[in-house]
C-alpha cells in the first residue's frame, strides 16, 4: 500500500468521503455499479470530489463546466492516462487510448488528424454509402433479433475495415473480422463487462496482476498472438497493394502515400488497429440505440422519413452531401448519443502536475474521471423530460440545429478528445439516412401476428 504516512498539502483537498487508514475509500465503492457510488457522493459533496483508494488520489468530476475547465482548458496537465498493466498481458497496450501523454501519443494523434479530421472524413463518402447499402440488404434478410445484432456488428466492423485498410470484408467469415471477433471474445472473457467498467471507473487498479484476469495464461497468449496478427497483416497487405498499384482508398493507403522518411510504420499500425477496435464497439453501440429508438418512437421515424422524402428525390438515397439539408436527421443522431452515451464512463485522465481549482488542491498523479455521462445527459435542467427520446430538443423553433452541447461531453475532453468523432458521426448518419429512406423499422410479430414488445436493456462495459 502506497500511503504509509499522511501527506500535507498547501490547500485543502476537494470535499469527499472520509477515508479509512490504508484502505482510503475502497470499502465504500460499489464495484459492480461504480456510477451509483459517484452519484451518491455527488449529492453529498458536489461537483468536484476527492477520494483516496488504496493510496491513489482520485478526483471525480460531476459537472460539465468543471470538466471543461480542468480536462479541456487545462488539458496540458490533465491529459495523461493511468497505467493499466493488464493491457500488456493481453497484448493491447499499443492502443492510443491507453498511451501516457507524450511523444508517441502526439505521433498517433497527428495521424488521426491527417486522415480523420472533419474535412478529411467527408472524402470517404462513397464508402459510407456503399457499406450502408450493404447493411440495408443484410437487414432485409434478417428475421430474428440475434441476427440484427450480428448484422450491426458486421456492418460496423466491415465499414471500419474498408475505411481503415480498403479491405472489402465478406461477412463474418472474413479472416480479419473472424480474428478480431476472436480477440474480442477473449478480451471479454478475460475482462468481462463489469470488470472493464471497474478498470475504467477505478484507475487505482493499475498494478493488478495476472490473477485478476482469471490467471488464464493460455488465453492471454492467444490474445497477444491475435493482436500481433491484426497489427501487422492488414497493414502489410495495403503496403503490398501500394507497390502493385492496386490499393483502394483507405486511411492506411492515404497515410503511406503522405508518409515521409521519418514516419514510423509501427505507429501507423497501432493507429489503424486502435481505430478499428475503438470504432467497432462504439459505432455498434450507437446503432443499437438508433434501432431501439426507431422501434419505440414511430412518430420520430415518420418525421425523419418525411424530411428525407421532402429533401431528396424519391428514387435516391441521401448522401453525406445532403446532410446540411436534413437537420432532423442530425437531431436524431445527437439524441441517440445523448439518450444512451456509447462510452458512459469516458476514459480516465491523469494529472502530470499539482493544480489548484476553486481553492482546492489537486495533487500531481491524480486520476480524474468524469463518471457521470449518463447523469449529464439525463440532467433535467438541461434536457427536460430527459428519458424521452426527443430529437426536436436539438432544434430551434424554425427547425434548424441548435449549437449542441451533447458533443461537448459525449466524445471526451481536451487533448484526449476522441479523434474519431467526425468519422463516427458520418458513418452513423449515412446508415441512418439509408435505412430510413428504404426500410420501415417496427416491432417483430409472433406467429399469430401479435407484436412482440421490446424490453430495452443495455450491457455494461466501456462501450454499452
Ligand atoms: C459514437 C462513437 C464514439 C464515441 C461516443 C467515442 C467516445 C470516446 C471517448 C469518450 C473517448 C475518451 C476521450 C477522453 O479521454 O477525454 C474516446 C477516445 C478515443 N476514441 Fe472514440 N468514440 C467513438 C468513436 C470512435 C471511432 C470511430 C474511432 C476511430 C476511428 C475512435 C477512436 C478513439 C481513440 C483513438 C481514442 C483515444 C484518444 C486518446 O486517448 O488520445 N472513437 N472516444
UniProtKB/TrEMBL annotation:
Alphabetically ordered keywords of this record: Heme, Iron, Membrane, Metal-binding, Monooxygenase, Oxidoreductase, Signal, Transmembrane, Transmembrane helix
Transmembrane segments: none
CDD domains referenced in this protein's UniProt entry, alphabetically: CYP64-like
Protein name (Swiss-Prot/TrEMBL): Cytochrome P450
Molecular-function GO terms, alphabetical: heme binding; iron ion binding; monooxygenase activity; oxidoreductase activity, acting on paired donors, with incorporation or reduction of molecular oxygen
Family named by the database record: Belongs to the cytochrome P450 family.
Species in which this protein is naturally found: Rhizopogon vinicolor AM-OR11-026
Membrane topology: Single-pass membrane protein
InterPro entries cross-referenced by the UniProt entry: Cyt_P450, Cyt_P450_CS, Cyt_P450_E_grp-I, Cyt_P450_sf, Cytochrome_P450_fung
Binding-site list for heme: 418
Pathways per UniProt: Secondary metabolite biosynthesis
Subcellular localization, as worded in the UniProt entry: Membrane
Domain of life where this protein originates: Eukaryota
Residues in coiled coil: none
Amino acid at each position: 500500500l502506497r500511503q504509509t504516512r499522511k501527506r500535507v498539502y498547501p490547500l485543502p483537498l476537494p470535499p469527499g468521503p472520509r477515508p479509512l487508514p490504508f484502505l482510503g475509500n475502497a470499502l465504500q465503492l460499489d464495484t459492480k455499479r461504480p456510477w451509483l457510488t459517484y452519484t451518491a457522493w455527488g449529492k453529498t459533496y458536489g461537483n468536484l470530489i476527492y477520494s483516496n483508494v488504496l493510496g491513489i488520489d482520485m478526483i471525480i468530476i460531476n459537472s460539465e463546466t468543471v470538466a471543461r475547465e480542468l480536462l479541456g482548458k487545462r488539458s496540458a496537465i490533465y491529459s495523461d492516462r493511468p497505467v493499466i498493466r493488464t493491457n500488456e498481458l493481453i497484448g493491447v497496450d499499443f492502443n492510443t487510448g491507453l498511451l501516457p501523454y507524450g511523444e508517441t501519443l502526439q505521433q498517433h494523434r497527428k495521424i488521426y488528424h491527417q486522415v480523420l479530421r472533419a474535412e478529411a472524413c467527408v472524402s470517404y463518402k462513397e464508402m459510407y454509402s456503399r457499406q450502408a447499402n450493404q447493411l440495408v440488404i443484410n437487414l432485409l434478410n434478417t428475421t430474428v433479433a440475434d441476427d440484427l445484432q450480428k448484422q450491426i456488428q458486421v456492418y460496423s466492423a466491415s465499414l471500419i475495415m474498408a475505411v481503415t485498410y480498403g479491405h472489402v470484408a465478406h461477412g463474418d467469415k472474413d479472416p480479419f473480422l473472424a480474428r478480431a471477433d476472436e480477440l474480442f471474445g477473449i478480451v471479454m472473457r478475460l475482462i468481462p463487462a463489469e470488470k472493464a467498467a471497474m478498470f475504467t471507473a477505478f484507475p487505482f487498479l493499475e498494478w493488478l496482476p495476472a490473477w485478476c484476469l482469471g490467471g488464464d495464461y493460455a488465453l492471454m497468449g492467444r490474445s497477444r498472438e491475435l493482436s500481433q496478427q491484426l497489427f501487422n497483416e492488414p497493414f502489410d497487405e495495403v503496403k503490398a497493394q501500394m507497390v502493385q498499384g492496386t490499393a483502394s482508398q483507405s486511411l492506411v493507403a492515404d497515410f503511406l502515400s503522405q508518409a515521409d522518411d521519418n514516419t514510423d510504420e509501427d505507429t501507423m499500425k497501432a493507429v489503424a488497429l486502435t481505430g478499428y477496435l475503438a470504432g467497432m464497439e462504439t459505432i455498434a453501440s450507437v446503432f443499437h440505440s438508433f434501432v431501439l429508438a426507431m422501434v419505440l418512437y414511430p412518430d420520430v421515424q415518420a418525421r425523419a422519413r418525411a424530411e428525407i422524402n421532402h429533401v431528396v428525390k424519391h428514387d435516391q438515397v441521401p448522401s453525406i452531401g445532403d446532410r446540411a439539408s436534413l437537420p432532423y436527421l442530425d437531431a436524431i443522431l445527437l439524441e441517440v448519443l445523448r439518450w444512451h452515451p456509447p462510452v458512459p464512463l469516458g476514459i480516465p485522465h491523469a494529472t502530470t502536475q499539482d493544480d489548484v481549482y476553486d481553492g482546492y488542491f489537486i495533487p500531481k498523479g491524480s486520476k480524474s474521471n468524469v463518471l457521470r455521462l449518463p447523469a449529464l445527459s439525463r440532467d433535467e435542467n438541461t434536457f427536460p423530460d430527459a428519458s424521452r427520446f426527443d430529437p426536436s430538443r436539438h432544434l430551434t423553433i424554425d427547425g434548424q440545429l441548435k449549437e449542441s452541447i451533447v458533443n461537448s461531453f459525449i466524445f471526451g475532453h481536451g487533448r484526449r478528445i476522441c479523434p474519431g468523432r467526425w468519422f463516427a458521426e458520418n458513418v452513423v448518419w449515412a446508415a441512418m439516412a439509408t435505412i430510413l429512406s428504404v426500410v420501415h423499422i417496427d416491432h417483430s410479430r409472433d406467429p399469430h401476428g401479435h407484436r412482440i414488445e421490446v424490453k430495452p436493456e443495455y450491457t455494461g462495459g466501456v462501450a454499452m
